[in-house]
Amino acid sequence: MFIKKMIITFSIIAFIGTSLYAKQQDPDMISYKDYKEKKVTSSSTKKVNNDKKVVTATKKVEKKPAKKFATMAFLKKGTMINTNKYENIKYTDLYRIENKVYRISRKDNEILAVLN
After folding, report:
1. Number of neighbouring beta carbons within 10 Å of residue 109
2. Count of Cβ atoms closer than 10 Å to residue 93 Cβ
3. What is the DSSP string of 60-108?
4. Euclidean distance between CA atoms 22 and 8, whole angstroms
5. 3-state helix, strand, coil in the chain (%, to 5)
6. How far apart are CA 102 and CA 84, in angstroms?
7. pLDDT 10s per residue in the chain (116 long)?
8. SS3 assignment, position 39
9. Model's pTM, two decimal places?
């Protein structure tokens, strides 16, 4: 009898403990139950296709600036610095090369910013 009470007590404590540490749902996310799919009619698809053609025709093409990468020879000219003067960003390093400070990505040696 004592063992049954202990098992029941332990299972209740375990259940309550796991529910306390369970991941809470993000209030901004829409649950699957709340999602309602709109019915598609043939007339609405024609309107959507015409709208897409107009949007793509009037859309301006923006040119992205070319990415600049630092070579090892360029990095060897300077020194890596560690200072609190500049913001710390993960997976980047600061290099002082020819009186300028460069923020360089560790992953692919892309020059992210020239700070000074």
Report:
1. 15
2. 16
3. PPPPPPPP-B--HHHHHHSEEE--SSS---TTEEEEEETTEEEEEETTT
4. 21
5. 35, 20, 45
6. 15
7. 889 999 999 899 888 877 666 665 554 444 445 445 555 555 544 555 555 555 555 556 566 778 899 999 999 999 999 888 888 889 999 999 998 999 999 999 999 999 87
8. coil
9. 0.45
Q: Identify the helix (H) or strand (E) that includes residue 113.
A: strand 111-114
Which sequence spans correspond to the domains of the chain? 72-114
User: Which among 103, 100, 108 has a CA at the least distance from the CA of 72?
Assistant: 108
C-alpha–C-alpha distance, residues 36 and 100, integer Å: 55
Which DSSP symbol is given to 21?
S
Give the amino acid at 102: Y
